[in-house]
């Protein structure tokens, strides 16, 4: 690069840095929040890269990302995803859940396009992220607001149009609490909003080990009990699953 090119690119870098500073940080983020976001997003990026390279297992990724969620004060996360603006005009469906993409602060040294997907999921009271299992994906969830009834199941096997599962988690989760899934641990999840509205922040890794991800909606109430708490549960198409599980009908 000659001197002229160098000063041009330096100028461009300075200009974009100044722009970025003014757009993202000058007014909306205090220095401590920026530092926390920097630490947090670098760690998240590292864990997701590790999983992508297969240098950690999905179960290890779950522990790391949930640990990261637990390290940060929920109020700081709400600030750096700009939760208040993100949920302005949020449309809550009558059945199931709606999502919105999240934009993390752009920070030096971090790629503009992340290898993980990041979204908030929101729903009204009694609505559900319907019971489903996953193949070749991992996701971690941080409760941002409201309360949810969370159920998890371990996936023990796949058969023609059904999964063999076993219950592992059945609890109410509140803001700051976490949950995660993968082929390795707690593969099936099911969330029902317990408050007027409820939101999660999801970090999602798709197509692990180069294999196309898949989602299996489950007809839990049609379970067939097997030995040792195991159950065989039919797989449902998404439309039937939503009409059956998208909204609680018993109250
Ligand atoms: Fe899921």
Range of helix content: 25-40%
Low-confidence stretches: none
CATH architecture: Sandwich
What is the tally of beta strands?
Answer: 12
| Helix-strand sequence | HHHHHEEEEEEEEEEEEH
The CATH homologous superfamily is named Jelly Rolls
How far the N terminus sits from the C terminus, by CA atoms, comes to 69 Å
- The number of domains is 1
Question: How many helices?
Answer: 6
The largest beta-sheet arranges its strands as 3-8-5-6-12-10
CATH topology title: Jelly Rolls
Please identify the structural class as seen in this structure: alpha+beta
| Shape verdict | globular
Cα-atom radius of gyration: 20 Å
CATH level 1 name: Mainly Beta
Q: What do the pLDDT scores average to? A: 91
Main sheet record: 6 strands, antiparallel, barrel
| Chemical compounds bound to the protein | fe (ii) ion
Question: Could you characterize the architecture of this molecule?
Answer:
This protein is α+β, with helices and mostly antiparallel strands and 251 residues long. The protein has one domain (3-245): Sandwich (Jelly Rolls). 31% of the residues lie in helices and 33% in strands. It has 6 helices and 12 strands. The strands form 2 sheets. A 6-stranded antiparallel beta barrel has the order 3-8-5-6-12-10. A 5-stranded antiparallel beta sheet has the order 1-2-9-4-7. α2 (31-52) runs antiparallel to α3 and α2 (31-52) packs across α4. The termini are far apart. The structure holds fe (ii) ion (FE2). Residues 132, 134, 139, 181, 189 line the site of fe (ii) ion.
